[in-house]
Amino acid sequence: MPPAAERLAWKRWPDGSAVFDRALGHTHILNCLTSAVLHAKLQAPSASVERIREMIVPAGNEAVPSLQEIAESLTELQRIELL
Amino acid sequence: MNDEPLLLGLREPHSLQSLPLAQWDRLLRMARRTNLLGKVAVAVEDSFGVAALPAPVQPHIVAGLRVAQHQRQAIAWECRHLRTALRSLQVPVILLKGAAYAMADRRAAHGRLFGDVDILVPRGALAATEAALMLAGWATGKEDPYDQRYYRQWMHELPPMVHQQRGTIVDVHHNILPITAASAPDVDKLIAAHEPLPDGSGLSVLAPCDMVIHSAVHLFHEGELRNGLRDLLDLEALMSESSSHDAGFHERLVDRAEELALLWPVMLALRYCRLVLRTPLPESTVARAERLVSWPKARLAWLDGLYLRALAPDHPLLSSADTTLARAMLEVRGHALRMPLPRLALHLGRKAILRLFKHTSRSGA
Amino acid sequence: MTPVATDGLVPLEHLSRDVFRVGLAEGRLALQIGPLVVRVQTVLPDVAHYLRGVYGQHPACIDPSFADFTIEVRKPSNLRRWFRRQVEFAVEGETPFEPLPRSQAPALFEWGLNWSIAASCHQWLMVHAACLERNGHAVILPAPPGSGKSTLCAALSLRGWRLLSDELTLIDPSTLALHGLARPINLKNQSIDLIRSFEPSARWGPLSYDTTKGVITHLAAPLHSVEHVRQKAQPRWLVFPRYVAGAEPLLAPRNKAQTFASFVQNAFNYSVLGETGFDATGRLIDACDCFDFEYSKLDDAIEVFDWLIEASRSPADDR
Fold first, then answer.
1. How many angstroms separate the CA atoms of C61 and C39, rounded?
2. What is the pLDDT of residues C248-282, one digit of tens each?
3. With contacts defined as CB-CB under 8 Å, which chain A residues touch C261?
4. Do C168 and C306 lie in a common domain?
């Protein structure tokens, strides 16, 4: 399995992103938070949930996501085999 | 038949560059019908490129290339899923047919359509394989208990397993021919000679000679010859690729076929590659194979009559009573090879009734 | 793709009835439908009558030098014909569907043609959506059956929008150019009456038939749409329509990522195109303003779509 950074093609918008997984041929739609979490995790594969939160810069006035929300995004990303 | 633009084009792709538009029309119609559009597209792409084609033809070739590319990816994806599912098995998992050609990067995979994934495992590992697949989301499709028994008892494979989410199908074989057939080959020899794929996936393919032998066995034991020409092209691609870096390949092929007591399908494969595809083959090897099989000339002539017509691309443009009759006869012959006659009659008879009832009970959209 | 001059294409209705009938019976008649040349064969008089009625202005010829498909509508040739009167569709000799009741032969022609295109035209990204153009800008209306898409599409085509297709939107994955077909629009039940009163001068196919879903008939593509079918268009709006009884018109901007998902759900061959499909869809979503559209009255819908055109004209909104 090639590393995730080469595996994925991205299309990003302010309201979320579309990701194409070249390894498995799947297309995923991710909300803002999950997109940001994936992006962060790809940059720093061993980052903890807390570190990911530091890395995610919320746009505008959005509340900083909770650790719980980030953990849920990570679980989801693992479920769809992007991580 | 030998003048068919489709066959000429596949034998000599460069000749397609000067093919008149009206002949392209005929060629593309045949190609779609015989599932060979991908092969034509790849042949064009590899020899002179789409841009040199007449404008009306280009979109067809572009479409054919896209499908071929997608198919190639899809089979790789599916094999990846399979590898994950079967990782825990301690036995060789040997890919067969299209999936094998694709994952071993054989020329036979170029432009090919793939359907189910076929794998071969030792008989003792069947239960474990089925369990591992079910754990990973595949389930046996056939619900009819008679069909289930037919598969498990008589055939050389489990009933096809369908993945519940992806809808893809894997056929698990424990031999390359049904176990009731008189000439069931010694599959342990095939398994022992398996070659693990270089990608470290844990999946294997058959040894080069065995891959050809299996393809030949499959072609000449099949009842339906819908993909007959495609299968013959597979054989030709496998043999010419192997012999291109191994001058003694054809000889070793015949030796191995003899060792496995599967000489006659290989003999027919050599024969029809030469007659239908004009494949260059060493004369002495072909003669030796025919001598070893030693069928009477009359039998060969009869088979030629059946197969040469039946291997022709099937299309209304070519339809004649002759072609239809040949197919009907082969249908029976294929099954007869796989199962002794009394059991066969029961199976076919019941299937035929089922088909009839399906149609009369239809209420029309 | 320009038609080959030597093929001598003329509007179908300009062929003499005899030439037309014989050509059709012998499988030598070809129709140009947008960028596609379709060879058609049938001996069934209702199908012939239908084709001449709704495809009368499409270019046609006898013995084309090249055709993209060869299709046939015929009675089934086996046991089945003894049980009930049926009709089947064949493309290159293959019969992909179960036969239908004999009376639905013209509808079978259209469904069969849809299938033939969707099954093989992977030179394009193909979407189950209506597509219309005005002032060089195109609107794509993806929608599942029952969303009122066909009725809305018919109405727009009768109010200044050029019809590209009511069902099959064909997109060039590299340029995003849209290719039209200008084929008849399939309408049923109340939609038929609605469009008849909406535009009394509309041209209809010669036949209608009863099915389990009610009455079906075909609205011929307006002449202007057929005459300009080869004119390409670039996508400007993606509108997801939804008929809601009694609703005031509502045009609501849509989340782009969500739109990607909805679009892909309606794209027949998205997965065949792999990353090419992903890439093309991404650029399409970028290039278009994306909306959900709720409505109940056709006149309201026309007004809203007129407004889209107006809005696209003002310098501030120009791209």
1. 9
2. 898 888 889 989 988 988 888 888 898 999 999 99
3. 18, 29
4. yes
CB contact under 8 A, A25 and B74: yes
The per-residue pLDDT for range C67-86, each reduced to its tens digit, is 999 999 999 877 655 667 88
| Domain ranges, residue C72 | 10-120
Establish if C278 touches chain A: CB-CB under 8 angstroms. yes
Q: Are residues C115 and C132 in the same domain?
A: no
Q: Please give the average per-residue pLDDT across C160-176, as a whole number.
A: 96
Nearest CA distance, A53 vs chain B (angstrom): 32
Least confident of B154-168, C157-171, C285-299, C305-319: C305-319
ipTM of the complex: 0.88
What pLDDT does residue B364 have? 25
Question: What total of structural domains would you count in chain C?
Answer: 2
Can you tell me the distance from the alpha carbon of B25 to that of C70, in angstroms, rounded to the nearest whole number? 10
Question: CB distance C122–B21 less than 8 Å?
Answer: no
Count of pairs with CB atoms under 8 A, one residue in B, one in C:
79
Domain C-terminal end among C74, C102, C120: C120
Residue C178 and residue C75 share a domain? no
In the numeric block, which tokens belong to residue C222? 């307006």
What CA–CA distance (Å, rounded) separates B161 from B159? 6
C107 and C226 share one domain: no
- Cα separation, A28 vs A10, whole angstroms: 10
Strands, sheet with C69-74, edge to edge from the N-terminal-most edge strand? C10-11, C59-62, C29-33, C36-41, C69-74, C86-91, C100-101
Would you call C130 exposed, middle or buried from its count of C-beta atoms within 10 A (0-12, 13-18, 19+)? buried
Mutation target to probe the A interface, by most A beta carbons within 10 A, among C238, C254, C255, C285 is C255
Do C184 and C308 share a structural domain?
yes
In whole angstroms, give the CA distance from residue B78 to residue B71. 10
A27, closest residue in chain C (CA to CA): C278
Chain A nearest CA to B77, separation (Å): 5
CB contact under 8 A, A24 and B74: no
Would you put residue B78 in left (φ > 0), alpha (ψ -120 to 50) or beta? Answer: alpha
**Nearest CA-CA distance, residue A25 and chain B, Å:** 7
Q: Which chains touch B (3 or more CB pairs under 8 A)?
A: A, C
If asked whether residues C135 and C112 sit together in one domain, one would say: no
Determine phi and psi for C9, rounding to 5 degrees. -75, 135
Using the Cβ of A25 and the Cβ atoms of chain C, whether some distance falls under 8 Å is answered with: yes
- C-alpha span between C67 and B56 (Å, rounded): 8
Beta carbons of C257 and A15 less than 8 Å apart: yes
Digitized pLDDT (tens) for each residue of chain A, 83 residues in all: 556 668 899 999 988 899 998 887 788 888 888 888 998 999 898 999 888 888 887 655 456 788 888 888 888 888 877 87
Q: List the Cα angle B254/B111/B119 in 5-degree steps.
A: 55
Which candidate in B70, B75, B77 is best for mutational testing of the A interface (most A CBs within 10 A)?
B77
Largest CA distance in chain B: 61
Same domain, C279 and C130: yes
Q: Which residues of chain B have pLDDT under 50?
A: 328-336, 338-365
The residue whose two tokens read 């399409």 is C284
Among the candidates C58, C90, C120, a domain finishes at C120
